[in-house]
Amino acid sequence: MKSFADLGLAEPILRAVAAEGYTTPTPIQSAVIPVMMSGKDVLGIAQTGTGKTAAFVLPLLQRLVAVKQAGSTLMPKSCQALILAPTRELAAQILESIRGYGKFLHLSTALVVGGARAGPQIRALMPGGDILVATPGRLNDHLQSKHVRLDQTQAVVLDEADQMMDLGFMPQIRDLLARLPRQRQTLLFSATMPREIRGLADQFLNQPQEISVAPTAKPIERIEQSLVIVDAGKKPETLVALLADDAIDQAIVFVRTKHGADRVQQIVKQAGHYTVAIHADKTQGQRDRALAMFREGKIKILVATDIAARGIDVDGVSHIFNYDLPNIPEAYVHRIGRTARAGRSGHAISLCDRSEIGLALQIERLTGARLLPDAVRSARPPTRRPAGKSFGAKRAANDRVIPGGAKPASRRPTGSRGFSGGKRAA
Ligand code: AMP
Hints:
Elements: H1 11-19, H2 27-37, E1 42-45, H3 52-69, E2 79-84, H4 88-101, E3 109-112, H5 118-125, E4 129-134, H6 136-144, E5 155-158, H7 161-166, H8 170-179, E6 185-190, H9 195-204, E7 209-212, E8 223-229, H10 235-243, E9 250-254, H11 258-270, E10 275-278, H12 284-295, E11 301-304, E12 317-322, H13 329-336, E13 346-352, H14 357-367, H15 374-379
Parallel strand pairs: 1-6, 1-7, 2-4, 2-5, 3-4, 5-6, 8-13, 9-11, 9-12, 10-11, 12-13
Bound molecules: adenosine monophosphate.
């Protein structure tokens, strides 16, 4: 197996990787890093937990080292590399990774996300910088008002493209990509590969190398999954009873709607647990604080909607509870992927009422897991799924999932909002 040094990364990057405690590259890192370093475009099919962030950040840093050595100058309001992510939480986490892996490189980085004040972002964008991490909506606003330009940007990464699409960011992404120079490197990562994402790749990537390390719709095998059939009205007491289990270190309870999340938070609180809910109606500050406390272990139970919990990478999450089943079966895979991080095992327990049996069958079809009692399954033939079939769904049930090979790493949320840290290329 290759080491990070074998991959040809520069010494300050190797030092930072060693400081993170990584000894060997994960499969996606071994696959992506050489291709990216050769300058080719990459279409990566991978879920979080596989080490995909480092897979694109490390070669990106390597590229920036070379740019600096070549003495290239930066234009004001410009950036050398752009990373687009669906949510502000994921964007902040990517920035945190860049700061970790790039800590010996003196790069300037910036974060541009919705829900934060525009003024400080505009000031931070003004001088230009090395890496900009952004959510598409807010970046597009800054482009429209000419506070940022992308015509000098040499590399762009679209992370969790399927999620950006689900959030309705496709028009902004197309607009942003059209403003980048034709001569550039483009990387697109997505957990699933629906037709629209494939189309985006066809249009904006140049003969990409396709890299898929895991049948991404199939949950990691370290997660023990179970499903409880329960009357809708009995869900509150069932959840409370399940939460009393001493084996729970930390748990995320998923709820489909914002209202529902608030209600479930009250139920959990009344049962005597310290808990918070995160969803789209909470302010950025509230979400950041809640996540920071959860990460530090001060909150044991987090109640979340699908979108708010995207990309949450907290090693201590031992249990996922699905208070209700998601409408989209892929969301189930994303939900339960919040546990079994960093090489640990995890539990995913779903509450399913009669009205959700159809959803459970779709999840079974997508993941190959058998969740429902046999008697229930045979009483209901599975319904066909609409378009947007995932990659993993096509794969054989015995396909192996390569786990991320993660280490117990703690990640702090970042409060920083601008190009900062280190000297800029003069
Ligand atoms: P990601 O898939 O990028 O969200 O990464 C999942 C976790 O794996 C993070 O906690 C990383 O710090 C960790 N990680 C990434 N690469 C490695 C590696 N080569 N060895 C050990 N842990 C890693």
